[in-house]
Amino acid sequence: RLQNVTAAQVASAVHTLQEFLSSHVSAYRYAAVRTLSEVVVRFPLVVIPCTVDLEHCIADTNKNVATLAITTLLKTGVEASVDRLMKLTSGFMSDISDEFKIVLVDAIKALCHKFPHKHPTLLNFLSAALREEGGFKFKKAIVDTIADVMDNIPDSRDLGLEHFCEFIEDCEFFDLSVRILHMLGERGPKTSNPAKYVRFILNRVFLETSSVRAAAVTSLAMFGSALPSLTSHICVLLRRCLMDGDDEVRERAIFYLDQLTSEPQYAKFLLHDKTTAPLASLEASLQLYLQKLPSAPFDVEKHLIAAPEDTELSTGTSSAPPTPSASTPTSTADKKVADKKEITFADANIEIFQSIPELKALGKIFKSCNPIELTESETEYVVSYIKHILPNHIVFQFNVTNNMENQALENVTVEVEASDEWVEELSIPEASIRHGQPGTCFVCFQRPANNFNSGTMNCTLKFTAKDVESDGSVSDLGNEDEYQLEDVEVLESDFMRGGENIGLVEFRRLWEGLGDENESVKKYSLGLDSIQKAVSAVMDLLGMTACENSAAVPDGARTHAVNLSGVFFGDINVLCRAGFMLDAKHGVTLKIAVRSKNSELNQTLANAIR
């Protein structure tokens, strides 16, 4: 953890740790081997003199010591010693728990990247471990490692797929079987002898559960579409699946058989092309299309938007670091979306909002918050809501999806029970929501002056349920019903937009410019055991942006300071300094200081941590 230390400075400390490895006190041995397992990452050559002592630790009765010893040896090993280390590890694996086995698998993956020519030895070891007893997480870690090796070492592809074929012959975890079948269909046609994998896939069609059989059918179709020489043989095998007892298996077989015989080029595009739209973006686009119901048919080129979870819905900036997502142009379809500057999900919600004259008359939206789920995704009615912040009002937009088959919902509203200070002014229902279709209803409250927290507000979904006949017509008779939702709440952070990511020098200048007279300070005992969790929680409660990546807490830090900036409702610039201290007995303690030109606002935000 000492960033500027040199190998020569570490060597004397390693010598002392080497003496601790042979101590009769298990705590000393554990401390020494744990420290060496971290030192070896930066200074592997310095740890090599400890090899003999580490090998003795493999037989230690304390399995923590033994596991760390073998992982440290794997990191220090040279290519000539790989075979010997694998023999040591083989005799050690059966005596440790799955948690320790996963640590070893990760070390073996690193060793394979370090010595790619040794991949046969390492893959054979991992394959043997796959056939031994173990839980799902352990087996999944091995499958992930073999897949990673195949991705990074092309010569290992055939051997890795052969090991996968042997594993699925007696695999007790259906999820892993489905994943491996997909990898066989994706990578098998690119090997030197792809036909040999078809037999293993076909065995899964007749000897497995319905989900695995369905995956096997798709895998066979992938071989048939990628290899014209095997297409006719694959079609024969797919015809044998037409009498399967499971609907999905039969329907997949019918579909792929039709595509392979009538439109082989389309089948190849469907099964192997990677430029199709991300599913999350496609789902969001279809939901928006169904809400607007334009006369033109749905077109991916015209109507594709970014998924809601990948778009910052606030008009401010996000405090999280950028990550690859559906909105990042990493594929051809994504680049088309970026180049055409299609509307985002946030823009779509604002467009729906402004299409209603009663809501548009309320004024300009200061901020639209991120969607929050009010139900589980598997329930009969799935409901989420978005808070729109306006000059004198708060508008709740409730997005409702009807998951009840053969049922239509009419006159759909959400009843929101608030305190007397918050007065409901307007409720706009959704006229009708059919099965699988989304709908939107709105509830508008007048916000009390200088009140930025509503407390919890009870919500109930109310509607008239009517049966849908087989011909698609809706019955005239209906029953009024209601469905209890999770509570909603208006918070101070809803009125805050993230500020610019300014530098430390600029932050200090602005901070000092506001002066001590414009500051509110408060201390809290947060009761959390991690400073990083505490930083994230405080940023969520305030809705502010961290400056110069100050939100990232170094590993092992006992104290940390974060500088935050934001723009509060009314275009008030706000700065905040938050100091965190971790105590083993009391958890994380917070001292927060807020500065702006509004003293009441400073006090409000300082009290927002709860």
Shape: flat
Give the % helix: 40-55%
CA-CA gap between termini? 34 Å
In total, how many beta strands?
17
Outline the biggest β-sheet: 6 strands, antiparallel
Mean pLDDT: 81
Class by SSE composition: alpha+beta
- Radius of gyration, taken over Cα atoms and rounded to an integer in Å: 30 Å
Number of helical segments? 24
Uncertain runs with pLDDT below 50, 5 residues or more? 309-343
Strand percent estimate: 15-25%
Q: What is this entry, summarized?
A:
The chain has 610 residues and is an alpha+beta fold. It is 46% helix and 20% strand. Strands 1, 2, 3, 4, 6 and 8 form a six-stranded antiparallel beta sheet that branches.
